[in-house]
Amino acid sequence: MDAKLTLKLNQEVIEKAKKFAASQNRSLSRLIESYLNSLVETEKESNSQVTITPFVKNLGINLPIPADFDEKKAYKEYQEEKHR
User: Fold this and answer.
1) Do 58 and 64 contact (CB within 8 A), yes or no?
2) What CA–CA distance (Å, rounded) separates 7 from 50?
3) Closest alpha carbon to 51 in 43, 63, 59
4) What is the count of structural domains for the chain?
5) Which residues span the domain enclosing 41?
6) What is the 3-state secondary structure (H, E, C) of 14-75?
7) Which of 6, 33, 69, 70 has CA atoms 20 to 30 A from the CA of 60?
8) Per-residue model confidence (pLDDT) at position 19
9) Residues contacting 76, CB < 8 A, separation 6+
């Protein structure tokens, strides 16, 4: 459920944020909501030993990995290819 929130910000910051939001094809409200959500999620994770940033969390989304994938073999092959 969405609710209204009134913020008091520097006008220059508002204008820059609007331009940035437009360049991302998002509304300023959704941009702020996303940012605040990332702060809350980061705070939750700070109680754990390792903090994973939202950027890192999103890196592996929707990438299918075979059940029999051998990461050591893949790394070895990568190194061999890299140093040819």
Assistant:
1) no
2) 33
3) 43
4) 1
5) 11-82
6) HHHHHHHHHHCCCCHHHHHHHHHHHHHHHHHHCCCCCCCCHHHHHHCCCCCCCCCCCHHHHH
7) 33
8) 92
9) none
For residue 11, give both structure tokens. Answer: 């006008």
For the whole model, what pTM was predicted?
A: 0.48
Nearest 10 degrees: Cα torsion 66, 55, 18, 23: -40
- Angstrom CA distances, 78 to 33, 65, 69, stand at 40, 17, 14
User: How would residue 55 be classed by pLDDT, with cut points 50, 70 and 90?
Assistant: confident
pLDDT band at 47 (very low <50, low <70, confident <90, very high): low
